């Protein structure tokens, strides 16, 4: 009996899970699916890369597939609310892949594209609706979508919703939901506002927390290059010309920075594409496709735009700017060394960024070797990492959430997220009679 078989999902789902190359459930799947099949509410403290999408998509398909209701114009049985278009599209892909044998209708609704096709599909009603908050509210206000008969509500990446300023839209949407429903809330972190929201919208939820466990990232060869801010672009160009960089993701801190780096590379005959939040949906997808197909070998991205992007065979991650949050470093370098291959992470660090480097080394519990052997090396001494306080040494470091195990992939899936340690407990929360206002 496979590990998934123990979860009592219907046979047609078992088959597609197998076809997707998933051999055993990730901790959040193993812990959440049985409770969700029983109809409990759930608070999942987990980030992208832990397998959380399948943790909610599979039980939803199981429940709705086993008891599909007649579709009514503008209605959905399930709403999955997610902050970004990329995440929405990815969840849609997952529903399509796992839901194939069940013949359930779903729609993915987000802004930045015309609404005609979205309203057309909603005009007949769908079983599952995946949406970003702004466009969903637009379509509700225009009378194309009604949520009064919703059975299941998923709020994905609640903390990110907060960061992106969507929380008021989210609250407006929640106020439109029927009080009697199953609710799942996922968040990587639990800021107070999310905590408050969970108390308002979840009823006696199961709480599952998965934290990336310390595992070795020995396959990612990391190094840091000290360089002045002004020389970073020249250094990047030099690296890309000289090194055997097959396919690289270059991270900048800002959207403007991403554009400037891309233009600089293009001017120097190095083909590159950019992906960030100011680009239209079409432009983002085009860049991503070109990168996936290998038409450009360099994709320049901001952290936010790169969230949830799953591209195989990235040989190098280059941190053109050090990330503000040390956790982002772990996310970024997790884009390489996937599927059992080796990978490289090269970080450019100027004098102002040495505190960020120190923070990163503290959380990964490793010193990142400094490579001085390049034309633009500059000693960023006074505040620098060469005077860095010793960091606790440890063989194992926090493994990037998207780190892969080398399983075969299908539809961008099948890659095993990291081992994570789940904590499950019942949390008694009260839901006010009028849900979520
Ligand atoms: P997520 O956290 O949902 O974004 O998932 C991260 C990656 O893990 C995606 O590429 C999924 O296809 C993959 N994945 C999720 N669950 C499993 C599993 N049980 N076995 C193998 N890969 C999985």
Explain the overall architecture.
The protein has 437 residues and is of the alpha/beta class. The chain has two domains: 3-209, P-loop containing nucleotide triphosphate hydrolases (Rossmann fold, 3-Layer(aba) Sandwich), CATH 3.40.50.300; 220-388, Rossmann fold. It is 34% helix and 18% strand. The chain is built from 15 helices and 16 strands. The protein has helices at residues 11-19, 27-37, 52-66, 85-99, 116-122, 133-141, 158-163, 167-174, 192-201, 232-242, 255-267, 281-293, 303-306, 326-333, 354-364, and strands spanning 42-45, 76-81, 106-109, 126-131, 152-155, 182-187, 206-212, 214-215, 220-226, 248-252, 272-275, 298-302, 316-319, 343-349, 397-398, 420-426. The strands form three sheets. An eight-stranded mixed sheet has the order 3-4-2-5-6-1-7-16, with helices on both faces. Strands 9-14-13-10-12-11 form a six-stranded parallel sheet, sandwiched between helices. The longest helix is centred in the first third of the chain and has 15 residues, at 52-66. It is elongated and about 65 Å long. The N and C termini lie far apart (45 Å). Bound molecules: adenosine monophosphate. Adenosine monophosphate is lined by residues 22, 25-26, 29, 48-54, 310, 407, 413-417.
């Amino acid at each position: 009996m496979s590990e998934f078989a123990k979860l009592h999902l219907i046979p047609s789902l078992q088959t597609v899970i197998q076809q997707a190359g998933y051999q055993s459930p990730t901790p959040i799947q193993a812990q959440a699916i049985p409770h969700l099949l029983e109809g409990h509410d759930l608070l999942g403290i987990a980030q992208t890369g832990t397998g959380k999408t399948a943790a909610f998509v599979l039980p939803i398909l199981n429940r709705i597939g086993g008891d599909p209701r007649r579709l009514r114009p503008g209605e959905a049985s399930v709403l999955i609310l997610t902050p970004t278009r990329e995440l929405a599209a990815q969840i849609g892909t997952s529903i399509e892949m796992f839901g194939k044998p069940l013949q359930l209708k779903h729609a993915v609704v987000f802004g930045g594209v015309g609404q005609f096709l979205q309203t057309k599909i909603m005009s007949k009603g769908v079983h599952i609706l995946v949406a970003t908050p702004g466009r969903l509210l637009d379509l509700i206000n225009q009378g194309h979508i009604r949520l009064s008969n919703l059975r299941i509500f998923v709020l994905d990446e609640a903390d990110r919703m907060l960061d992106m300023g969507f929380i008021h839209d989210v609250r407006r949407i929640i106020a439109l939901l029927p009080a009697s429903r199953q609710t799942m809330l996922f968040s990587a972190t639990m800021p107070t506002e999310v905590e408050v929201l969970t108390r308002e919208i979840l009823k006696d939820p199961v709480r599952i927390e998965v934290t990336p466990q310390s595992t070795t990232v020995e396959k990612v060869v990391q190094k840091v290059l000290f360089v002045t801010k002004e020389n970073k672009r020249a250094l990047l160009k030099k690296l890309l010309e000289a090194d055997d960089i097959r396919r690289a993701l270059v991270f900048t801190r800002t959207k403007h920075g991403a554009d400037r780096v891309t233009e600089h590379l293009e001017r120097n005959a190095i083909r590159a594409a950019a992906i960030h939040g100011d680009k239209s949906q079409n432009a983002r997808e085009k860049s991503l496709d070109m990168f996936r197909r290998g038409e450009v070998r360099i994709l320049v991205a901001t952290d936010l735009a790169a969230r949830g992007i799953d591209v195989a065979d990235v040989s190098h991650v280059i941190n053109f700017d050090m990330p503000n949050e040390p956790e982002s470093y772990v996310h970024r370098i997790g884009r390489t060394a996937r599927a059992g291959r080796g990978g490289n992470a090269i970080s450019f660090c100027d004098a102002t960024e040495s505190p960020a480097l120190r923070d990163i080394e503290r959380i990964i519990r490793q010193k990142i070797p400094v490579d001085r052997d390049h034309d633009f090396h500059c000693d960023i001494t006074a505040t620098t990492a060469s005077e860095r306080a010793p960091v606790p040494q440890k063989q194992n470091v926090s493994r990037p959430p998207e780190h892969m195990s080398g399983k075969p992939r299908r539809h961008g899936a099948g890659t095993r997220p990291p081992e994570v340690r789940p904590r499950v407990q019942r949390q008694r929360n009260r839901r006010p009679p009028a849900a979520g206002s």
